[in-house]
Amino acid sequence: YAAKARQCGSLIYHAQLDAGSQESLSLLSEMRRAVENDELRLFLQPKIDLQTGRVIGAEALVRWQHPTRGLVPPMQFIPFAEQTGFIRMLSAWVLSGAARFARDALDAGLNLRLSVNLSTRDLMDQDLPAKIEALITPRNVPASALCLEITESAIMDDPERALSTLEHLHAMGFKLSIDDFGTGYSSLAYLKRLPVDELKIDRSFVMAMERDLDDARIVRSTIELAHNLGLTVVAEGLETAKAWALLAQLGCDEGQGYFIGKPMPQEDFIAWAQAWAPPEAGTLTAESVLA
Ligand code: C2E
Ligand code: MG
Ligand code: MG
Ligand code: MG
To answer: Which residue ranges does the record assign to the EAL domain (predicted)?
Structure first.
């Protein structure tokens, strides 16, 4: 996260470089105010079935509609939120928005699975499963309508404790996904032990696969690995028709990316999904870059 945020050249992120500074204290109070004043926005990005083109879900991605800085992307405040522990409040906000949206979608006749990103600190919270259940039960949303995305690094911080939370969540029926797969300090031994349902190939590999044979091979092997472990595999960063065709050819199950749809305000999603028409069969073709 730190490295990624630094690449973004984030103004806000610099505040945490000396924690306890006036700047970071004011950022923390600004974030508290953001929740109180309803400045957070829930964006949704579609996930589709690569074989049929059907919309099957959406990933919830947070933005901050800041009164003076405009729409602030998550990489500019999530790392700070993680450091200060504020992330738990943020995750609760996103989870509650996702549960509410899952209900609205069901009422509109759409059966969508909502994916929510969790951080290490969330996994260290033993009450997390009960908290999520309290969000879905009154709305009559099934646990399987939520998918919780975690990164390899979030698990590796304290694998035993993370495993216990994940097992609990899995037993309750929530879907679990490993996000940004291939970029963290993964351990295949842990991957085997984790009760996960889905693996998301990091967008860096997917975005490069058309021009770089090594990336294409990594994508192919990851799809195979996921399937051998009985996991659904999702490609993120699907930006072109050709990438879709290649991924479908390689047997990848699901896709998410700008070619299908960018993250959009949640208010726009249902209309977008109802208007979505996958490309006509036969229009998606690609000569395999892999022999
Ligand atoms: P992520 O979970 O891997 O989410 C996917 C990111 O890839 C999103 O960036 C999305 O806009 C971007 N993306 C999707 N398709 C494409 C594509 O085709 N091309 C390119 N270039 N990018 C694509 P976003 O929304 O800026 O979020 C960045 C990261 O911030 C997320 O990565 C996630 O790690 C974190 N994040 C976002 N919302 C939350 C949240 O509510 N809680 C937590 N803990 N983390 C969040
Ligand atoms: Mg994610
Ligand atoms: Mg990702
Ligand atoms: Mg990520």
So the answer is: 24-277
